[in-house]
């Protein structure tokens, strides 16, 4: 359908997640579920990750994606979802760095 | 997320249907709710709000925490008329995030040469809109000045609850258009939704300047679109 032109299939994380799953890859989906302050990506944004650490999309401006990918590996292993929090309130996460001063909660779950 | 849910979600997004994905954060159980579907209780109220505002967020209901991800169709712009203004409007709108389709049955106007990289239909609006119906996430700008081409599309846009309906022409031209649309069965209320003369007031004179004025008006209409448009989508 030509309506596909409205979704950028090459960059849309949910379209990519479906395609990866159908290729038989293990896929984790990360979603921004809460934001405070000047969070770089709005609530509902996705990062999709496979078992090899390939990823598409974003949950921040590139600040915490690395940490989310690492957590996603554990979620793929256990199958249990996780709720991660990044931001100024969390010393560890601050080192990972939401330098813009925002705070976000990211939900990571396994697709399947 | 369940793969079946993801398939249904992506299908809805491809078909420009508004949906809200409800996820129980405790066990990642999910459910896809379509616009117009009724869900009871506090959760239902929150889902309704997500459809109206397009905003995603967490909600506490029935002792559980749910995440509601609102997936509303992206806005698009249908331009009736492959004219000089449209040549400027198409690339500008695309950059601003409003994919454009141009419809004009006059094959001399609707050429790829004049509109590179643009979705172009050298057909009557009647034919195209039957295959690709308008919806409340669509803006329409009728810029041919030709009643034979513009009128049907304008009436269809009003009936579909397009979030923006603009028509090129002077006040005098528009007055005649109003009479014709009324004769086609458009109500007074519908007719008042038409932006005419088209475009915000910036003293636009050249085709490119008029395109800027029209695009600005479309963007404002999209951000101001009310619950009315959301309900029409339901």
Automatic annotation (TrEMBL), chain A:
Pfam annotation, one family: XdhC_CoxI
Cross-referenced InterPro entries: MoCofactor_Util/Proc, XdhC_CoxI
Domain XdhC- CoxI intervals: 20-87
Source organism superkingdom: Bacteria
Classification via PANTHER family: ALDEHYDE OXIDOREDUCTASE MOLYBDENUM COFACTOR ASSEMBLY PROTEIN (PTHR30388), MOLYBDENUM COFACTOR INSERTION CHAPERONE PAOD (PTHR30388:SF4)
Protein name: XdhC/CoxI family protein
Automatic annotation (TrEMBL), chain B:
Residue ranges of domain XdhC Rossmann in the record: 77-218
Entries under Pfam families matching the protein: XdhC_C
Chain segments annotated as transmembrane: none
Superkingdom field: Bacteria
Protein name: XdhC/CoxF family protein
């Amino acid at each position: 359908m030509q309506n596909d032109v409205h979704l950028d299939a090459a960059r849309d994380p949910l379209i990519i997640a479906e395609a990866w799953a159908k290729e038989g890859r293990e896929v984790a989906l990360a979603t921004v579920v809460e934001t405070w302050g000047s969070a770089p990506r709005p609530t509902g944004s996705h990062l999709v990750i496979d078992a090899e650490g390939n990823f598409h999309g974003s949950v921040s401006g590139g600040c915490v994606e690395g940490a989310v990918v690492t957590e996603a590996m554990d979620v793929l292993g256990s199958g249990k979802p996780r709720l991660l929090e990044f931001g100024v309130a969390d010393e560890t996460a601050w080192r990972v760095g939401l330098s813009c001063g925002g705070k976000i909660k990211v939900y990571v779950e396994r697709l399947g | 997320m369940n793969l079946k849910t993801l398939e249904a979600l992506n299908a809805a997004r491809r078909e420009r249907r508004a949906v809200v994905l409800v996820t129980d954060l405790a066990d990642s159980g999910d459910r896809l709710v379509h616009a117009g579907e009724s869900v009871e209780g506090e959760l239902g109220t929150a889902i309704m709000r997500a459809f109206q505002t397009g905003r995603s967020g967490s909600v506490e209901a029935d002792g559980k925490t749910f995440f509601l991800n609102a997936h509303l169709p992206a806005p698009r712009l249908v331009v009736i008329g492959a004219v000089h203004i449209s040549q400027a409007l198409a690339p500008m709108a695309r950059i601003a995030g409003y994919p454009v389709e141009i419809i004009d049955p006059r094959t001399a106007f609707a050429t790829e040469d004049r509109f590179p990289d643009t979705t172009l239909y050298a057909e009557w609006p009647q034919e195209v809109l039957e295959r690709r119906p308008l919806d409340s996430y669509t803006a329409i700008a009728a810029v041919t000045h030709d009643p034979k081409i513009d009128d049907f599309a304008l009436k269809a846009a009003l009936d579909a609850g397009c979030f923006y309906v603009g028509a090129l022409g002077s006040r005098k031209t528009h007055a005649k258009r109003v009479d014709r649309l009324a004769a086609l069965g458009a109500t007074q209320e519908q007719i008042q939704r038409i932006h005419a003369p088209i475009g915000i007031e910036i003293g636009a004179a050249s085709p490119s300047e008029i395109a800027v004025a029209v695009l600005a008006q479309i963007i404002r209409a999209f951000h101001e679109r009310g619950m009315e448009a959301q309900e029409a989508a339901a």
